[in-house]
Amino acid sequence: MNRRRTPVLACSVVGAAVVALDGTVLTVAQPALQRDLHADVGQVQWTSTGYLVAVASLLLFAGRLGDRHGHHRVFAIGALGFAAASAGVALAPGIGAVIALRVLQGVCGALLQPATLGMLRTAFPPDRLATPIAVRTAVIGLAAAAGPLVGGALVSSYGWRSVFLLGVPPTLAIGLLALTAGEPRSREREAEDHRAAPGLASLDPVGALLLAVALGLFVHGLVEAARPGGAASGALACAGAAVAGIALARHERRAAHPLLPPELLRSVPVVAGVAALLAASAALFGSLFVATYFLQDVQRLDPLTCALRVLPLALLMVLGAPLCPPLQRRFGPRRTATAGAALLTLGALLLSRLDATAGALPVGVCSALLGAGFVTLMVTATSVVVHRAPEAHAGVAGGLQQTAMNVGPALGVATATLLLTLVPHGGFVPAEGAALPALTAIAALALPAALALPGTAPRRTRPGPVPPRPGRRPCVRS
């Protein structure tokens, strides 16, 4: 790896890991935050919902900004803003300030996340993308697994404010590193910049606004629908999202420089990869949501024992990610992703058959299958999405991937919450409820999406013969 690629990989990996860690440690800190700031449950919920809505609404627009103005620059702004917002939350005097700063964190996270993939696409040749993406995925899995342990230790020793200070030094460091690293400019990027309209027109602000409204209302509707008594407001928000989505589709067909490039949407591998990620993330996070309540409320396990029962999921994600690139080279993205989708579906299916007496071994096996399937599908589908997108639209492709990874969990948890209420006395027992069978069906939707991926991995490109200089006769050796 050359010197220019090392800081790019460091920024991408650390940036993605900090965002993953932030989400998991916040869950542990919320009860203490609620007590300290004398807030109600609804207000505390908005510390997560506000962040999620902001991120989901702005990911694609942030990716477009990176395509137009440089992924390093947009990443640096997002990372430095994330660090400042995190420090602000740690010093916030009340719950209102915490919610506002969490929304600001979401805006900065939206700037940061697509750029983590956009920078990789511009720094690494297509045939070598799978390895840095696998490293990025492994570190995300490690951060997600370590989050509850680190968060619990910090909250117990120093209070809830300390978990927000945790991400300040690394995001500050990678933000400054991204500012000093040079932005590679290929001929494709330069040609696209030359063709693009100057100023705000090339960013399609109307399309960005309509997309933000559609995604924001959709995520808000899912969260509201999952809340007790919020079905009506959730349905209303989802209806508003559908109206905004229709308006967006009409606008994009007429826009001279659409936010969603037609060549990206016409790419079957890109669309299939995003669909596979959406279904897989919904199934995984919905299943974990049900499993957590099953282990803690039905089997009466403490949080640490519960975390140990599902630890194989995180371990398989960390250990399995480096194996995905050689699997793709040997078997191709289609067969690799299909195998991952099959393992994920099998894990959800077996989990749905557990009864109230299930021990550590069956839960661990299900967790291992979920982790192995998800990491295989995630690394493969992400590699296809980033590789098959034109370099000039790498930021938008990264935004699509991140949008699926943010909307999918909200969809899965909302589905699980709604279906758990259908069986009041047995809904938390997988074999007696309706939630996990539905999530198994969602996981199975990743199978046809995986089958639509390319059958062969990208080949290594070798430099061609150097043409002779003008005015010189070619030298032929006997």
Q: What multimeric state do the chains show?
A: single chain
Figure out the total of helices: 19
Number of E-state strands: 0
- From the helix content, strand content and strand pairing, which structural class follows? mainly alpha
Question: What percentage of amino acids are in beta strands?
Answer: under 5%
What does the average pLDDT come to?
A: 82
Largest beta-sheet details: none
Query: SSE string, helix = H, strand = E?
Result: HHHHHHHHHHHHHHHHHHH
Radius of gyration in whole Å, from Cα? 23 Å
Helix content percent band: over 70%
Shape: globular
N-end to C-end Cα span: 38 Å
Runs in which pLDDT lies below 50 for 5 or more consecutive residues are 187-194, 461-467, 469-478
What would your notes on this structure say?
The protein has 478 residues and is an all-alpha fold. Helix content is 76%, strand content 0%. It has 19 helices and no strands. It is globular and about 55 Å long. The model is unreliable at 187-194, 461-467 and 469-478 (pLDDT under 50).
